[in-house]
Amino acid sequence: MKGNIEERACRLALYIVENKATVRAAARKFGISKSTVHKDLRERLPAFHPLLYRQVKEVLDENKAQRHIRGGIATRRKYKGDLPVPSGEDGDR
Length: 93
Hints:
By secondary structure, the protein is an all-alpha fold. It has helices spanning 5-19, 23-30, 34-48, 50-80.
């Protein structure tokens, strides 16, 4: 998903806000790296769309606060032999 960086950042932000998605899930959906998602959302988006940045920041902060819980769930599933971990619940950073 190359091209206009501002458009990509907005599409990523809207996807995360609308779906309460993790950075990992967004990266997978758009076929880019987690580093690119972070850079687009944390560095680029605030410069040209501050309102959308605040909305996506709330979701990202919530995901960060819950990451230890998701990591524990993923570990438990891994060692119990349960079903594969659903997208976005594997200790995303």
